[in-house]
Amino acid sequence: MKKIALLAMTAASVFSLAACGDQSGGGAGGTRDQIRAVGSSTVYPFATAIAEMFVQGNPGMKSPIIESTGTGGGMKLFCAGVGAQHPDIEDASRRMKKSEFDQCQANGVKDIIEIQVGVDGLAFAESKKGPGLKLTPKIVYEALAANPYGKGPNKAQTWKDVDPSLPAIPISVFGPPSTSGTRDSLAELILENGCQTDESMKALKEKNEDEYKATCTRIREDGKYVDSGENDNLIVQKLGANPNAVGVFGFSFLEENKDTLQDVPINGIQATYETVSTGQYPGARPLYIYVKKAHMTAVPGLQAYLDTFAANWGPDGALTKRGMVASPDEVRKASGETIKSLTVLDGSVLK
Q1: Nearest residue to 120 via CA among 238, 232, 38
Q2: Confidence (pLDDT) at 5
Q3: Number of other CB atoms surrounding residue 260 within 10 Å
Q4: Model-level pTM?
């Protein structure tokens, strides 16, 4: 019966999607009977796993198109408008920014549903043949910042230059690009915390937010930090070829490659399922999907796709077996209610 109901919706749905596109002012320019999601490379493997389960549970439905564009790049695509030529879902490894919400609103994307689907850790890792580094947000900031504490260009060449307890090996970090939510998490969870160990930086934040952001989050561009694109598996490969290098990516990629990689503890805390799920790990962060309410009745199977997420995000669910960390009970309950009620996001809560 579910299959018949879903397929029966298809003809009416594609026409209503075209209509909602025309109402947005841009014109849909066609119809679509297939879910489309864009966004985070960290959420990508979980979104594709849900797509597989969705197809298995709904024979006859087309497999959703999932694109790994990075959170920031995905937000631009998601917020460009409503209608068949625009994606239905944005996968995000950080929360939507107020500026992105405002852009959505300006382009007619008025009703946005926010769903936290799990938790991830911003993991630091090295080859099992690596030096066994132990880092802190302060050390990471002083190693990677373009202009540490606003005192001039970063001249540190080795980890020992940053902290005498560390080995005299060249600083070499493979990490995400500026369009990635993982890069935003690196800035917010690690770099800013390291920067704020200097009291003058806290004062700067109060005085000049833009200067503070540039000082605390802008990464050096002299080759010590290598922007490695949206494919986190490439970073894993690069660590194999560079035993003294450090990689920065989502916790699930560390979990999947424990045979070749080892965790680099932050503040003496290793990235494990337990430390990430409880928030003890400094790099713990929530994972989200954002959905256009206007597309819910227009795109066949979109509700069923969200229901498939909710059915598999628990501690013993299929997603945790893929490396995702389950959200706390109360968060999962609230997210499940949001999927049922399709409650829209209040933009005033965003930063």
Answers
A1: 232
A2: 43
A3: 13
A4: 0.81
Q: Quick one: which of 149, 288, 270, 244 has its CA closest to 205? A: 149
| AA letter at 193 | N
Identify the residue whose tokens are 């050390």. 139
Give the residue from 120, 101, 124 showing the smallest Cα distance to 112.
101
For residue 144, the enclosing domain spans: 121-284
Number of domains in the chain: 2
The 10s digit of each residue's pLDDT in 194-240 is: 999 999 999 999 999 999 999 999 999 999 999 987 777 889 889 98
Q: What is the DSSP letter of 295?
A: G
Residue type, 341: S
pLDDT per position as a tens digit, 119-164: 999 999 999 999 999 999 999 999 999 999 999 999 999 999 999 9
Rg (CA), the chain: 21
* 347: Cβ contacts below 8 Å, ≥ 6 apart: 98, 101, 102, 105
H or E segment to which residue 199 belongs: helix 199-207
In this structure, what CATH number is given to the domain that contains residue 210?
A: 3.40.190.10
Question: Do strands 112-127 and 261-263 pair parallel, antiparallel, or not at all (unpaired)?
Answer: antiparallel
What Å distances lie between residue 226 and 6, 142, 144, 223, 334, CA to CA?
46, 16, 10, 6, 38
- Tracing tokens 């068949």 back to the chain, one arrives at 84
133 and 280, same structural domain? yes
Same-domain check for residues 92 and 109:
yes
Please tell me whether residues 206 and 60 are part of one structural domain: no
Question: How do beta strands 65-66 and 112-127 pair?
Answer: unpaired
pLDDT given at position 28: 40
pLDDT tens digits for range 241-263:
999 999 999 898 898 899 999 99
pLDDT for the residue 195: 97
Give CA–CA dist 159/172, Å, rounded. 9
